[in-house]
Amino acid sequence: MKTVLAFCLLTLVCATADAQSSRDQRKDFVEGLLKSLIDSQLNRGRPAPDRDPPNRPPNADLQQAQAFLDDLAKQSGQLVNQLRVEERSMPQLRPLLADALTIHADARILRDDARSVRDERALKNSVREFDRKWRTLAHRLKQIPELGRASQRTIDSITDLDTSLSQLLGIDPQFDRNSLLRLSSSVSTSIGHLNQELRYQLHRNPNRDQILTQGFQLRLQASQLVSLVDRADYQSIVASTQSFQQAWKPFAARLRELNSERIQRDMLEIEQSLRDISEILWLTAPIDKAQIVQLTQTIEREFDLFLENVSLAQLIKLNQSQNLIQRSTQFHASAHLFAETAERSQNLNDLSWDFQVLEVEWKDFLVEARRINLPAAQQQIQMIQRSMNILQNMLNLRPQLDRRELLPVVASADDLSDRLLDTGKRLIGNSRSYPGTFRIKFLNELNELHDSAHQLHDGLIQTKSESELQHDAEHLIEHWSEVKQLVTQLRQQDQQQIMQIMAQLEPNMMKLQVIFY
User: N or C: lower Cβ tally within 10 Å for the chain?
Assistant: First the structure.
């Protein structure tokens, strides 16, 4: 008995030690990323702030700004530590942890800049950018119901400090006007396409004129929103957005009764853009129960089409086709059950739980379905995945790997790594200042970096599996580390030009490392 007890205690101690070692490694990893991010942004060629003359104390407003920034640097660092702990049990927090690292790096750089400027107004542009980033991150974090209370309190503290600093500098709340303009224009264009489809499909509908009039009025409202984005203040844009959403909801409910697949697809595009607009404006997107029901019905319908596109002969050709049949049966049953729950349930928590069960069945099915090399079937899979993603967003459930969010990050890495390769060829390719072996090695690594970024980009577009994306991301991160080591061996004038591009690439690579590490 003593031997068994001793063995159990030893096992427990070893497990605890392994867990502590893993936590320490993660902490060191995050701190290393933060240092690299800060160093890269400091070396990005930002203009040096004007220095104060000797013995000249800062004015009262500048002293207050410095105090706010000191607290922002401390509080944002505390948030990073809190999220680092929480992401152990919520891996879906990793992209937001990466954003929090960026916020902390920006706060520390701003804090240091504030100590060397003559006038607090010299900080305004940087504070505007900080405010925009922070408000977006705070809104997204607040949408996670499982987030710990300590983290929520820290978020509130940072928001209060950010608001006070912005008011001191006379800065209005900042939001991404460019993205808002793109999305509002997309809504306006999509409603125009929807109206054309309605004219075609409703030629025998007795309510045709009334529906078309509603659609025309909504197009006018969408156009008015587009015109406001460039010039209006935040409150005016919010009021116009909410007015449009209120007018859209009964119109959408009416269109759902038409039971047209093409009309419903147009509606999905519009409603996704409206959710994106709500996030940019830090609004909680209203949950439309009717839309949830429609999406579940769309998933069922698209899945039935998938089954119709896969013939018995094609199934027989597949190795272990019984696995696909089993996963298909399980997902079909879960989708039908979720559709029934969505129609009768009034409790969103129940829906969220049932959706997570459905999502597990979907991922299991995808493992088998990706083996079917049939364009029509794969198109059906992409349609279902899109509906699953929309449902997930509506229910405030963040995926562990958000492909839609990751795509612009990887697309930027693809573009910047291509620019880095071109710059490397121009500066190093034929330079006699470096040994031939070094030139070959450096250019090979730059080429591998770009190829791996491009491969990850293609993988996201082609909806590769998560394990395949993990492999591609690790390959990209490995070559990024190699390039960073080699850059330290360049001449100063060449290094500066290369580092300009790498500093732009650093935040993207930091985010990928946090997500995939």
Answer: N
